[in-house]
Specification:
Serum_albumin-like, about 325 residues, single chain, small molecule binding, ALB/AFP/VDB, Albumin domain-containing protein, mainly alpha, about 0% strand
Length: about 325
Amino acid sequence: MDIKNLHQICCEGNTVACVLGRSQLMNYTCSKQATLSRECIINSENDKPDLSSLPLSRFTEDQFVCKQFTDKQDDFLQEFLYEYSRRHPELAVPVILRVDTVYQNLLGKCCKLENPLECYSHGEEMFQRVVHESHEHVKNQCDLHEKLGDSNFHDRLRVLYTKKAPQPSAQELVIFTKNMAAAATTCCPLNDEQQFVCMENSAKLILGALCRRHEAEPINAGVGHCCDDSYAFRKPCFDDLQVDGTYISPHLSCDQVVNLNEDLCRAQEEELKTEKQKLLSNLVKQEPYAAEMQFQSVIVDFAHLVEMCCQAEKSEMCLQEEVPLFPCLFS
């Protein structure tokens, strides 16, 4: 695989800008050889050959599987990955890697048993379950996006990910969740198969950017676990990540949580929207266990306050007078 193709793997898509320069790309590639080589295997076959003489069942029904796995583990697993991926061109790379990981773990367990064939013969069912669960999660995300609409879906993501990773700045969290929301806006209207691949590949890039941010400046143990533990299961790991209970937010006064000054009255609609988004992240940092309706109530109060004061004769004075009355910390 040449640098151009590798660069496409790392940086494709409209939602995430490529942040790796050439020297960084080289360093990244050399440190991720195992993962990237498996992606190269998956992407190496474009034309689907005649597969009738090479049944995939030989990886789950042949009695000599454990011998091949034990004698030449890497070669055998790469052969499985190649054979599985060319039979399933409809699947996104991260999903195929999940199946590959499940198969490797299955053989690692089964080949220690007295009757390994009985154990690994359930492999095909496990592969189907991995694909089904991945597909269902994408479907649920797109159903939620359709139900909430672009703006409210973005707000939901911002609340969820600020709870999971409150350490980055509100601005960083806004940009990160904006990329995730944009992926849903692009991918969810597609047909089921394209939607599935689009969302999985977008998540690979967006979470990859978050993990590079963690590598440069550690965020928290949960993010570190998801980034370092399993590349294949990175997305499911982040999906399941809960509130970071170890985070203690520094106490902020109301004017530190939200920027209430006359500049808001001159702000364009997009700038005002960003201020509301940053306010939401700062609120979640302060009160991660508060009900989502409380957050939304404060955002509505903020919008009303800005509208009222910007119509007043002395807007700056109005905004400053209202700061102590603004319930930004639910107090």
